[in-house]
Amino acid sequence: MSRQPSLQIDGNRLVRDLETLAAIGADAQGGVTRIAYSQEDREGREWVRAEFAALDLEVATDSAGNDSWVYPGAERGLAPIALGSHTDTVPNGGRYDGALGVLSALAAVRVLYLENRRLRHPVEVINFAAEEATMSGATFGSRAMAGTLAPDVVQHRAWDSRTVADHLRDAGLDPDRVTEARRTDGPAAFLELHIEQGRRLETQRKPIGVVEGIAGIRRYEVTVNGYANHAGTTLMQDRQDALVMAAPYVLQVKAVAEQHGIVGTVGKMDILPGSPNVIPGQVIINLEIRGLDEDVLDRAERQLEEEAGKLQAAFVQTSNKPPVDSDPLLVQALVAACEDNGYAYARMASGAGHDAMCMADLAPQAMLFVPSRNGVSHSPDEYTPPEDCVAGAQVLGTALLYLDGMLDSGR
Ligand SMILES: [Zn+2]
Questions:
Q1: Which residue segments constitute the domains of the chain, with CATH numbers given?
Q2: How far does the centroid of ligand 1 lie from the alpha carbon of residue 302, in Å?
Q3: Does 97 appear as a known binding residue?
Q4: Are 360 and 147 in contact (CB under 8 A)?
Q5: What is the pLDDT of residues 59-103, one digit of tens each?
Q6: Fewer CB within 10 A of the end CB, N or C, for the chain?
Q7: Other CB atoms within 10 A of residue 328 CB
Q8: How far is the CA of 5 from the centre of ligand 1 (A)?
């Protein structure tokens, strides 16, 4: 790979920008609350727009509320290389989730602007709307952009039981026009810097994670049937207690996940009829498994189904989001950028979904992670050391330069 000219992110400015944005929607519990389309979210986005306006870049806002800016390139006819993430948060969330990706992209474009440099490709920055799962599922804005929203989604309930349509109207958007956010032309590539929200990087003492793929998620409903009866008069040996039958299955989920090197979780159980004086007659277990490899997920699924069969329990798959691989060329650019800057990196999978996963429908994509202290996220305790934030931005900016040379090179 040929060496590219370098790009030096202004680290102090990035750290200051993170602090400034964190003050918008700062809540009494020490966290940040900028729920999608709320007053605070709009204020945060407005501040980001002003920062881009200072670089002579005008915002384009689509009908789902995604903001984007395009810094022009030197070569005609090339699609932009896009960078981005989100500035909305969960209620009482942290300062880095999403914000780091948007502000690092801003930092990269700011360098180009201040040095009066043009890359071959235009550089697009996207501040996605409603990434957090507050609007009937996560990644609302990027799904709108990719055209993968359910047709009736605006009628769904948002986090506060108002409809998604109500929230869109709060932000001055027309719910009937959300589908117009769909893009047909994707960027040449999409890169997202995000906090890891896990502990791997911290444990390995590495500042950068190069994401090779985003885990697939399969969810199941397992219904275990027993026999509901009086909890006082039915002798222990006469019982068919559905919860007692279901309990070992929960441990099986853990064992199967560990055996296959994936993650598996029973996150919800309904115990019916659900009364202290009635032996449980039915238990509905909601579980999910996540992993990068479809074959491994298949094997784990078969085993879980087999175990359910031993209990004569019904085993039904309720959803299946396939894993998304990062684009190999983009991964190569990220690795080269880490090596260029002398940062240790780990190749890893993302266990959580992100806007990049939705952008995979439109463009080659990849992500990079920086460490999360104690693996904590969606919490006021979310923290990434300043030097790691700057390292992430530096790798993002350098990878942008590499990609600018690699893509559409006609060679
Ligand atoms: Zn996020």
A1: 11-214+324-406 (3.40.630.10), 216-321 (3.30.70.360)
A2: 32
A3: yes
A4: no
A5: 999 999 999 999 999 999 999 999 999 999 999 999 999 999 999
A6: C
A7: 11
A8: 30
